[in-house]
Design a protein that fits this description.
The chain is an alpha/beta fold. It is built from five helices and eight strands; from the N terminus they run βαβαβαββαβββα. An eight-stranded mixed β-sheet has the order 3-2-1-4-8-6-7-5. About 10% of the residues have low confidence.
């Protein structure tokens, strides 16, 4: 088993200047550091890219796409990590240790890991990912974020 698996965090954006900052800060503050953060931007015309470029080590692709799923597939193609995680623009991790908890499950060999999301407030954008869980046979709970190995993600 890998001691520190590389996790690819993929964020899809389009004119997300007003909501991208909390997402970028949330990733940047993670205590687990073996990750890559990929921004797939649909050729935003606002300040989304200006905000994103303030953060070191981001991998950014900005070009027109054919919609959300096309953008997600571009992110999958760019990802180098064994584990993939989609974190939407405006969403945040529950705490600075969320990615560490995710990595701990990955170290145990789990193929698919998901986090339950909780709204911050009725007036805020996005949600915070918390409560790392493992998908088990027969588990029908719906989650806003299912994350897993590249093989498991492409097999779904």
């Amino acid at each position: 088993m890998e001691t520190a698996p590389l996790i690819s965090i993929i964020t899809i954006t389009f004119n997300a200047e007003k909501c991208i900052l909390p997402t970028l800060e949330s990733v940047y503050r993670q205590t687990y550091r073996n990750y890559e953060h990929i921004i797939i931007d649909g050729a935003s015309t606002d300040g989304t890219l200006t905000e994103a470029r303030k953060y070191p080590d981001l991998r950014i692709l900005s070009e027109r796409d054919k919609g959300l799923y096309d953008a997600m597939n571009k992110g999958l193609d760019m990802a180098r990590g064994r584990y993939l995680l989609f974190l939407n623009a405006g969403d945040t991790f529950h705490s600075d240790k969320t990615l560490a908890a995710y990595a701990e499950r990955a170290r145990k060999g789990d193929d698919i890991i998901f986090g339950a999301a909780h709204n911050r407030s009725a007036s805020s954008h996005g949600s915070a990912v918390a409560d790392i869980r493992v998908v088990r046979t027969g588990d029908a709970r719906v989650s806003p974020g299912i994350h897993g190995t590249q093989g498991a993600c492409t097999a779904l």
